Amino acid sequence: MINVAIADDHGIVRAGFKQFISAQVDMRVVAEAASGREALDLARKQACDVLLLDISMPDQNGIDILRAIRLAQPDLPVLMLSSFPADKYATTILKMGANGYLSKDCEPDELIDAIRVVSRGRSYISPQVGELLARGLNKVGDAPPHEGLSDRELQVFLRLAKGETVSEIAEALFVSIKTVSTYRARVLEKLNLRTNSDLTYYALQHGLIQ
Questions:
Q1: Left if phi > 0, otherwise alpha if psi is -120 to 50, otherwise beta: which for 48?
Q2: Domains of the chain, with CATH numbers?
Q3: CA quadruple 209, 172, 163, 180: dihedral positive or negative?
Q4: Strands 2-7, 100-103: parallel, antiparallel or unpaired by DSSP?
Q5: Residue 103 class from Cβ within 10 Å (0-12 exposed, 13-18 middle, 19+ buried)?
Q6: Percent of the chain with pLDDT over 90
Q7: Alpha-carbon span 105 to 121, nearest angstrom
Q8: Judging by DSSP bridges, how do beta strands 100-103 and 27-33 pair with one another?
């Protein structure tokens, strides 16, 4: 039996996924989380075999949560879910250690297949994501600049783009203000930008935030 936990801040989304999963003879939903902190708590308690994790959570984004899980529970299969198109986040999320990436509007059969695959410790690569990965290998120079950011740089970038201050980010990520400022400078340099407003515009232009 595959024990699945669902982390999404929308109750109706959790209910929909739970309906599909509970209809399977080989899996069941054993826990739900409506916030990033609850998702991390589930992971720490090792309450599931597979964690379905939304990339947009109210208190911590899915990238922050995934990074924390990978540091503490590196073997927990994590299947990332998003309303963003695959070309916005998929390759970055997989590089960070997610076992798979699915759009929330995927077909139920694909969701079930993905859960079964990642529960065995393998990575689930949909045809769409596979094409993106292949395209990235063949055309490295065409990749958008943000794909060259490190995990931590991406975390800081997205938080800055959403309007968080350096001190707020330092508190959320448990690092010093000086450290965040260093990451901010690296991000601005790598993206060839100058201000936080530029970061916000870039993120909106590339569909990284809504």
A1: beta
A2: 2-137 (3.40.50.2300), 144-205 (1.10.10.10)
A3: negative
A4: unpaired
A5: middle
A6: 41
A7: 24
A8: unpaired
- Contact in structure between 22 and 28 (CB atoms under 8 Å): yes
Write out the H or E segment, with its range, that includes residue 81: strand 78-82
User: Which token pair is 169?
Assistant: 């980010």
Instruction: Give CA–CA dist 135/131, Å, rounded.
Output: 6
What predicted TM-score, i.e. pTM, was given to this entire model? 0.75
Q: Is the dihedral of CA 187, 193, 195, 201 positive or negative?
A: negative
CA distances for 167 relative to 32, 150, 196, angstroms: 31, 20, 14
What is the C-alpha to C-alpha distance for residues 79 and 113, in angstroms, rounded to an integer? 11
- The predicted pLDDT at position 135 comes to 67
Identify which of 16, 61, 12, 15 has the alpha carbon closest to the alpha carbon of residue 35: 61
| pLDDT tens for each residue of 74-120 | 899 999 988 876 667 777 788 888 999 888 888 899 999 999 999 99
Distance between CA atoms of residues 23 and 34, nearest Å: 22
Q: Is 60 exceeded by the pLDDT of residue 141? A: no
Question: Interior CA angle at 83 toward 154 and 150, to 5°?
Answer: 10
> What would the two tokens of residue 83 be?
């309303």
